[in-house]
Amino acid sequence: MSDVITISREQQDFLNCQSNYVCCMAYAGSGKTFILKKFSEKYKEHRILYLAYNKGVQQEAQRKFPDNVKVVTTHALAYRYFADLKQKIKLNFGIFDLAKEFNITSFSLRFIVYKTLSNFYFSADESINISHVPKESQNKKTVYKEPERIEALSIAIKAYCLQADPENDFPCPPDFFIKHYQLTGPSLDKWYDIILLDEAQDVNMVTKALLDKCSCMRIYVGDPHQMINRWRGSFDVLSAAASEGAKVLRLTESYRFGRKVAAIANVVLRLKGENIPLRAYKEDRLLPKKTIQEIYPRTIISRSNLSVIFNAIDAGSKGKKICFVGGVEKYSLWDIVDYYYLKLNEKEKIKNKAILEKYPSWDALVKIAKITTDSTLTRAIVLIDEHGSNVTDIVDSITKSSIKSQDEADLILVTAHSSKGLDWNVVEIDGDFPSMIEYLERIGNKTDQIDYAYINDELNLLYVAVTRAIDTLGISACVMELIMHIQRLQKANKFKPLVSFSQLQ
């Protein structure tokens, strides 16, 4: 068999492009890593910076790309420049660090200050101002009063100054470093001739502002339909670059999966108003939920962390070996046991004593969970309310059933967010993805209340999930509902997307 790999017309257009500013819309499985590697080999005399989406992607790309390419995450790039601040990095920086430093007793004020800093970190702005201060709680049930917002702004400004001071030990979250580099660091074209930005749909304004300072060749690659981190300040850099005059290229053929998975992906794309379909030519298969649940090994992709845990409980009760993508430690299961003892007021049984510093009582924990909409706390509360005294046995059972090797697992469990960039032979879509049809039916004629960003982001997550399958995809009721929705509208000659690009502006 020949080792020669055929370059498609779209890929050749990418390799031949000489524009100084390029955005490439690359659909799921379309071989963007392959073509970026080929591009780097073509420009082997140039100094190339490849900004990777995360550490895992960075490590894999570092092994594959030629020596003229520096592969690094944006965070790592900033860490290296601010060596005098590196000892201040705190990965889990949060409201309690702010409360301790500034003696903030109000749970609400702690959260507002924290969100103000986060909003500033993600923005392109040069200073913190009132626009970064949230006007309402994340669940939109509480509107913050102006005096509280002004106080939060004042504290946030002081906090940022302390974080930027190498002589002060007030900690810095990773996102601080990118912001600080954007404000004070030199342009990257001082060291590089070409910058490749991977997963460009999921970066935020601060990264774009950092790159806007560069006059060298910039190539942004990603898939707007895989933008899933709006909650972290992400926005579609690809569309922004296109509107600024960047040369637009596309990679629309998937080499990961076949025609049937592509057909499901195209259902989602059509409902998002996308007119250019994803193409695939391999053979694959779709299975109903009942059938795929009899297949082992397989991967279950869930919408929420809570569903991942419930799937683990079910699998453990059947004696199945389970592998959590990212590790079981990611789910902080034994903290849930400590929260249970906190609810019983049996504080002497709590192993992680740091919990008592953050949450002096169960009521305080519940209150903080409501104010911050913290998913970890919310998950713990639901599990404790549903399982009560069985929580300890459940956590112990899950821990014993969990193994590290995906190759040896009966079930691989992962959320849609964490599945991005990965793929598996057999994938089941979990039943916890929300119904966008039901969402619109509930709103009815009150079209001014439609949250189009919510619809877009949920469809993006579903698109990411279904395109992780290589050979076999088990479809859920949510997917079937979308297929039937399109069929009904087409039959009545009334098709229109659930969300369009213009509705997101």
Strand order of the largest sheet: 3-2-4-5-1-6
Per DSSP, the total helix count is 22
What is the CATH superfamily classification of the largest domain?
P-loop containing nucleotide triphosphate hydrolases
CATH architecture of the largest domain: 3-Layer(aba) Sandwich
Give the overall shape, derived from the CA principal axes: globular
Structural class: alpha/beta
User: Overall mean pLDDT score?
Assistant: 94
Unreliable stretches (pLDDT < 50, length at least 5) are none
**Fraction in helix:** 40-55%
How far is the first residue's CA from the last residue's CA?
50 Å
CATH class of the largest domain: Alpha Beta
- The proportion of strand residues reads 5-15%
Q: For the CA atoms, what is the radius of gyration?
A: 24 Å
Number of strands: 12
CATH topology of the largest domain: Rossmann fold
> In this structure, how is the largest beta sheet organized?
6 strands, parallel
Number of domains: 4
